[in-house]
Design a protein that fits this description.
Shape: globular
Mean pLDDT: 90
Strand order of the largest sheet: 4-5-6-11-8-9
Low-confidence stretches: 278-282, 290-295
CATH superfamily of the largest domain: Glycosidases
Structural class: alpha+beta
Order of helices and strands: HEHHEHEHHEEEEEEEEE
Helix content: 10-25%
Oligomer: single chain
Number of domains: 2
Number of helices: 6
Largest sheet: 6 strands, antiparallel
Strand content: 25-35%
CATH architecture of the largest domain: Alpha-Beta Barrel
Distance between the termini: 50 Å
Radius of gyration: 20 Å
CATH topology of the largest domain: TIM Barrel
């Protein structure tokens, strides 16, 4: 039995016996599996490894030599897919329901670069999509001023979700099921903002060339063009407003509105679509198709 399952079962047994819950969060620590935590951006291969390894939290097709079959005690144990968030949630559901899941130490490195910002934005999107209850970035330094100066890009990844326009506009609070045809090239995260019914999208281009994407949003009734904001290597200190983007309404044989946008290389794009979404139809779904604008 995994130690963590035994741990949860002991707490559950105590509550059953005494009527008192002593554990609120199952708290795990996870650092970049390729030993890239607390490191600089590195060369292209290192940067690609950093972005690819965010899949450790969710992807059933992702394996890593650092995570091997725990039931195989030999030196040749095959790697397994960790799927850390679903795994932790399954332990809780099985062994101590009602316990929340937290990763209160994580660091993916590259915090002084656009590469680290992309990884951090991707992690935040994953955490939200999979319903992680709490996560805490572990800083490279204990000096706050140094942290801001040397790790501004990773801080801007938080701004993407919390204050993308400098006026406290936030990513939506209701997650929308979102898929990408190739998560390794382009990550797409969507949410509905309950305060104004706007659909907000975060598009992360992990490649080194521009990508033109057609994003489909089911059950969306746009009330105007999308507001667009961009974070890229052009200016690591700010998220820059871009020209509005037209939203194509559904044709009769479809229920999806579409947006066609070009994401610059190594960038994060925020789109906010005003909607006339009714309470009965607050279930839009996102998908994207990408055409590389480079060879």
């Amino acid at each position: 039995m995994p130690l963590i399952e035994y741990y949860l079962q002991r707490f559950a047994a105590y509550e059953a016996l005494n009527g008192v819950r002593l554990l609120d969060y199952l708290d795990l620590h996870i650092y970049n599996p390729d030993n890239l935590a607390f490191t600089s951006a590195g060369d292209t291969s290192v940067q690609q490894s950093r972005l690819n390894s965010t899949r450790v939290f969710w992807d059933p097709t992702y394996t890593d030599p650092n995570y091997t079959d725990p039931n195989n005690r030999t030196s040749s144990a095959p790697p397994v897919s960790p799927q850390l968030i679903p795994l932790a949630q399954s332990w809780v559901a099985k062994d101590y329901p009602g316990t929340k899941v937290a990763f209160t130490e994580y660091n993916w490195g590259g915090t002084d670069s656009i590469n680290g910002a992309l990884a951090q934005a991707d992690l935040l999107g994953i955490f939200g999509s999979y319903g992680l209850d709490m996560a805490t970035l572990w800083w490279n330094t204990y000096d706050a001023q140094t942290a801001v100066q040397e790790q501004l890009p990773v801080l801007m990844a938080f701004e993407v979700y919390r204050n993308y326009d400098g006026k406290n506009s936030m990513f939506g609070d209701m997650a929308l099921a979102s898929t990408s045809a190739n998560q390794g090239m382009l990550s797409v995260y969507g949410a509905l903002r309950s305060s104004d019914n706007a659909v907000t999208l975060v598009v992360i281009n992990k490649t080194y060339g521009d990508l033109t994407s057609t994003i489909s949003v089911a059950n969306l009734r746009p009330k105007g063009p999308a507001k667009v904001f961009l974070y890229s290597n052009t200016n690591l200190a700010a998220i820059a407003p871009q020209p509005d983007l037209a939203v194509t309404r559904p044709v009769p044989e479809s229920t999806a509105s579409t947006l066609t946008e070009t994401s610059p290389a190594q960038s994060i794009t925020v789109l906010a679509v005003p909607t006339a979404l009714s309470e009965r139809r607050r279930r839009p779904l996102l998908s994207s198709r990408r055409t590389p604008a480079f060879r």
